[in-house]
Design a protein that fits this description.
10 helices
């Protein structure tokens, strides 16, 4: 009972942060799931949570979604996410922990490098980015630090940005979830754990809807960096302890 109380409490915080900055639910909640359930179960559980988190963001900002951008991103990302999920299931658990931790830490300077160059992406660029990010999504669980600057580079802001990024990510996570199910990595007990964990993330996402317009760009950048640093260090600690 206390285990699920911890997961739900952290999930509420994760959903609120994700609803504000466009990413962060997976980054915040994943280390807790790894510690509670182990990395092998945490990955498919987080896939269910990600589906619920992105669905909440889509419903909160439904009228502002750029469907053309979503389609272009999904066309490249859906098959790549399935391939990445297949790759993940053959990796050792400790390697998964280390890869996740290093990825989050590396994306702190990586995200700033992308933003500093003010890259502008058309629909072709979104499709290509979707393929790369989709494959990484299959392996490292969360690529919000990559998809966030990708959709921002398409010129989307605030509600349109949050909802469109969520819709594109949802397509990738559906592909990943189906692949897990086909390979027997998403049994009923894992799905239930994902639904329980994701419920609090959804609540947090709807709470965040009221704060988005008040958040400055500078605050967004600092919050995202802190979230990635803490989660990356937590995952590396879990791998070496």
């Amino acid at each position: 009972m206390l285990t699920y109380a911890l997961v739900l409490a952290v999930g509420l915080v994760a959903g609120t942060v994700s609803g504000i900055v466009g990413t962060g639910a997976t980054i915040i909640l994943l280390p807790v799931l790894v510690l509670v359930f182990g990395p092998r179960e945490a990955v498919p559980i987080m896939a269910v949570v990600a589906l619920m988190s992105n669905f909440a963001k889509i419903t909160a900002w439904w009228r502002e979604i750029d469907w053309r951008a979503t389609t272009a991103y999904a066309l490249g990302g859906i098959p790549a996410a399935a391939l990445g999920a297949r790759t993940l299931l053959v990796l050792p658990e400790r390697a998964v922990d280390i890869a996740l931790g290093l990825f989050f830490l590396a994306m702190i300077p990586g995200r700033r490098w992308l933003a500093a160059r003010n890259m502008s992406l058309g629909y072709g660029g979104l499709a290509l980015a979707g393929a790369v990010i989709g494959f990484l999504t299959g392996i490292v669980v969360s690529t919000g630090p990559l998809s966030v600057p990708t959709f921002a580079a398409h010129g989307l802001v605030k509600g349109a940005f949050i909802a469109t990024e969520a819709a594109g990510s949802l397509a990738l996570y559906v592909s990943k979830g189906i692949t897990f199910q086909m390979l027997g990595a998403l049994p009923l007990d894992i799905a239930v754990k994902g639904l329980i964990s994701g419920s609090s993330v959804m609540v947090g996402t709807y709470i965040a809807r009221a704060i988005v317009d008040r958040l400055s760009v500078a605050t967004f950048q600092r919050l995202l960096d802190v979230v990635m640093a803490l989660s990356g260090l937590a995952l590396l600690w879990a791998a070496v302890r």
